[in-house]
Amino acid sequence: MDLKNKAVFITGGSSGIGLACAQYAAARGSSVAIFARDGKRLTGALADIGKCRVAPDQKFNAYQLDVSHNADVEIVMELAVKETGDPFILINSAGLGGAFHFAELPYKRFDDTMKINVYGIRNTIAALLPFMKKAGGHIVNVSSMGGFIGVFGYTAYSASKFAVVGFSECLRAELKSLNINVSVLCPPDTDTPMMQTQGRARPKETIAIAGNAGLKTAEYVAAAMYKGLEKQSFAIIPGLSGKLIYLIKRLFPALPEALMDRTIRKVQQKSG
Ligand SMILES: NC(=O)c1ccc[n+]([C@@H]2O[C@H](COP(=O)([O-])OP(=O)(O)OC[C@H]3O[C@@H](n4cnc5c(N)ncnc54)[C@H](OP(=O)(O)O)[C@@H]3O)[C@@H](O)[C@H]2O)c1
């Protein structure tokens, strides 16, 4: 995929998978706009993206924004287009993770998860579609393997990520005629600040299930994403084990459930 002289907009571009996607595009000649809430992290990320510059006319801009606040999204995206150009690629990577027993999941956490992971994506696409319509392009909504398989502890997270897949499937059909390709990225567990802070706080059943999978790097996930975009894939699943789980879930849905149930039983028996 030729990324030279293109504008790439990335929510959650100050950290983890979003930042790796930003650096990948910058190293291939794109202008990049990143969006997140924490100004200090944005400044640091912008400096890291700047180090990947390959041409003097590339623009790198950072915007403080909470994607769940629709009115702010409209204003900030308009400014970002003025300063960075019409986006050729929009990557919606901003997200809130976390695993909890449902009985211990506060209403606010459920609400925030939906507002950021689902409404956030809706908001940025609605704001940028008028600009993307002009020349076509790509929209990537970051879901998760938890967006096609329900795992112990992820009632809020998986619900939001399943919603992202459904939303994207509908949008893909609608935007095809505008030459805008819509994909979902479904990464496996990836070594990012989100995983480092929330990974250890997960219920032990969730940790045991994830324990069989292994961690990818954000750079690996970003490279797989751009490869998937080039092929215009809808579901982009980095790594062989993720692809296998996706296939097995589709063809034999009872199998992964039985395996997870067995792991959960073992953990619960061990802890009495
Ligand atoms: N890491 C994994 O194992 C994994 C696996 C599957 C899917 N994912 C998904 O991948 C995406 C990126 O996650 P990551 O692991 O790279 O996490 P991360 O390193 O914590 O990055 C999350 C990014 O989203 C931003 N963000 C969070 N809430 C936001 C909001 N309301 N408005 C704007 N920006 C917001 C954060 O910045 P601020 O906090 O400063 O706003 C940060 O830039 C998420 O959608 C996540 O669900 C991650």
Task: Walk me through this protein's architecture.
Helices cover 51% and strands 14% of the residues. Helix 3 (70-84) runs parallel beside helix 4 (107-132), helix 4 runs parallel beside helix 5 (155-175) and helix 7 packs across helix 10. Helix 1 (16-26) links the parallel strand 1 (7-11) and strand 2 (31-36). A 7-stranded parallel sheet has the order 3-2-1-4-5-6-9, with helices on both faces. Strands 7-8 form a two-stranded parallel ribbon. It has helices at 16-26, 39-50, 70-84, 107-132, 155-175, 193-198, 204-210, 218-230, 240-251, 254-270; strands at 7-11, 31-36, 60-64, 89-92, 137-142, 180-185, 190-191, 216-217, 235-236. It has one domain (7-270): 3-Layer(aba) Sandwich (Rossmann fold). The chain is α/β, with parallel strands linked by helices and 272 residues long. The longest helix has 26 residues, at 107-132. It is built from 10 helices and 9 strands. The model has no long low-confidence stretch (mean pLDDT 96). The chain binds NADP nicotinamide-adenine-dinucleotide phosphate (NAP).
